[in-house]
Amino acid sequence: MKQAKSSLGASKHYNSLRDVPSDIQKQEQSTELKVAEHISSAAHASKAILIDCFAGVGGNTIAFARSGRWKRVYAIEKDEAVIFCGKHNAKLYGVDQEISWFHGDCFDILRNDLCTLGPYSVIFASPPWGGPGYRTDPVFDLTTMQPYSLDELLEPFRQLTPEIVLFLPRTSDLYQLAKQNATRAKVKAIHYCMSGASKAMCVYFGALGAL
Fold it and tell me: Can you tell me whether residue 3 is helix, strand or coil?
């Protein structure tokens, strides 16, 4: 059976973690583990739940579960085949029992299924990137980001919790992000690099901005 690409960067189906080349594991997980470490250290002790809104095949979700920081990790993904891969990857890393998967639109699931978890939750979102100028403009306009603009992400997320982390293009407009500082809390942007070059950046909102 052919399987979609895994969070380990593999184009084939691996039956155990021992089968995955070490260079693939290190390359694909270095950023995810750093992000998981930063969120874990920044979150208040009362925050016991991590919600990954665009979980994909589980790269970040697995890193969150492996940290041991969270009572529960919730992973949301639209594509059922991708969820299958994510569950497989989580099992390879021995964290499948720490993750609850939801199939569907993350905004609907936050509103209908996870709506009571706000006081205990941190939202992480690595949305799909695209839109005019994404690959060409030196500063990326987040109001034109597709399929979701910055406001279209933050507004529904903030209905659940102010503690939000967005994984965004490295050229994202910092001024637009700073303007989202509605509560005067700090907004912090951290670039994550590989081989000396920025891969992307995470933006920390709410109390997480004090990181």
Answer: coil
Specify the pTM: 0.86
Confidence class of residue 184 from pLDDT cuts 50, 70 and 90?
low
Question: Which runs of E-coded beta strand occur in the chain?
Answer: 49-52, 72-77, 99-103, 121-125, 164-168, 188-194, 197-204
Phi-psi region at 72: left, alpha or beta (left = phi > 0; alpha = psi -120 to 50): beta
> Residue 5 carries which DSSP code?
P
pLDDT tens profile 85-144: 999 999 999 999 999 999 999 999 999 999 999 999 999 999 998 888 878 889 999 999
Burial 156-171 (b: 16+ CB within 10 A, else e): bbbebbbbbbbbbbeb
Exposure string of 120-149, with b = 16+ CB inside 10 Å and e = fewer, is ebbbbbbbebebeeeeeeeebbbeebeebb
Are the C-beta atoms of residues 162 and 209 closer than 8 Å to each other? no
